[in-house]
Design a protein that fits this description.
Elements (H helix, E strand, L loop, with lengths): L24 H7 L1 H23 L2 E2 L2 E2 L1 E3 L3 E4 L3 E4 L1 H9 L6 H17 L3 H5 L3 H15 L11 H16 L3 H5 L1 H11 L4 H15 L3 H6 L1 H10 L4 E5 L9 H5 L8 H7 L12 H5 L5 E5 L21
Antiparallel strand pairs: 1-2, 3-4, 4-5, 6-7
Helix pairs in contact: 2-9, 3-7, 6-10, 7-12, 9-10
Length: about 300
């Protein structure tokens, strides 16, 4: 008697396969490539800030990258400013220099093109803490103590703006763990590490992706920007078997609305961080980075003719 069972079929009629980690180093590096790229960018920026602040790095006598992640300057000439920080400061009644507004416009334009919450996965140093906590949770099998809506971060965003008006200070910037960690890394270890440790333990023991995925107002701000972003994760419906591997690795699994993705040919939510994890674990190559104008939108709400234009 044959005890074998026929393979489960996906909605496209193909057998459902699951991601298997390659045994070869080359294969593993390909799977890890976006994580490696992100760490290079995150650590590289910190090194540039540190080198300029502590060792006086310069190019043709101009400081390479001075300031911090809220406000900085490249080569002493190109201003950059966090738009959310600028918005909070402006609400306190402070009159900002045109240079600050220009810096905010530059950063807003960059993330408007690159994907909004690309900031969260590719630049923010807290992301390394959150990813470390997530890795430990998987190894230790830690379960959430409670659940809260991911929309809570939008309430925190509004609260930050309201408090900025009422208190006359940039409310989130005053307590931002991002700014605290950045200062600690640049200027030495202090009590700010307690805040970072608190986020690590909260994410590890209390709520998966608790800070970045549920509370951070800066992430909420960039999620709003991400709704019109140029770089998206393209989605090819005919090849998808709904194996679920993408949702298992995604730090924001609610963005993987496959019905919506089938209608528009891409992951449409601005809350997507463009981290690339879903791309590398998809056994069918259903997902790939693409440029919004070059992603075919299916006619009539069905995705029968979507072809990826790969960026990576």
């Amino acid at each position: 008697m044959n005890d074998t069972h026929p393979p489960r079929l996906g909605p496209n009629g193909r057998p459902v396969r699951h991601f298997v980690m390659p045994r070869s180093l080359g294969g593993r590096l390909r799977v890890w490539r976006h994580i490696i790229y992100r760490r290079v960018v995150q650590v590289g920026l910190l090194v540039l800030f540190f080198g300029t602040a502590q060792w006086g790095w310069n190019v043709f006598g101009r400081p390479l990258l001075q300031g911090n992640l809220s406000a900085s300057e490249v080569l002493g000439a190109i201003p950059m400013a966090d738009p959310f920080a600028v918005l909070q400061i402006s609400l306190t009644g402070v009159v900002l220099n045109p240079e600050v507004w220009l810096g905010a416009a530059i950063i807003l334009g960059v993330y408007g093109l690159a994907g909004g919450r690309t900031w969260c996965a590719w630049v923010c140093p807290i992301n390394m803490v959150a990813d470390g906590a997530a890795w430990l949770r998987r190894r230790l099998g830690v379960a959430d103590i409670f659940h809260v809506s991911r929309n809570l971060r939008y309430s925190v965003l509004v609260l930050s703006l309201v408090l900025s008006v009422l208190m006359g200070v940039a409310a989130f910037e005053w307590i931002s763990p991002i700014a605290i960690l950045h200062r600690e890394l640049l200027y030495g270890i202090g009590m700010g590490w307690v805040v970072v440790l608190g986020i690590l333990l909260f994410d590890l023991l209390v709520l998966r992706n608790g800070w970045c995925g549920h509370l951070c107002p800066l992430g909420a701000f960039y999620a709003l920007v991400g709704r019109v972003a140029l770089v998206r994760v393209a989605f090819d419906t005919p090849s998808c078997t709904h194996c679920g591997d993408c949702a298992r690795v995604c730090p924001e699994p609610q963005v993987l609305n496959l019905r919506r993705a089938s209608e528009v040919g891409m992951i449409a939510s601005g809350e997507c961080t463009n981290c690339g994890r879903c791309i590398t674990v998809c056994p069918e190559d259903t997902l790939a980075f693409g440029l919004r104008p070059r992603i075919d939108v299916p006619a009539g709400g069905t995705n029968q003719q979507v072809h990826h234009r790969r960026v990576t």
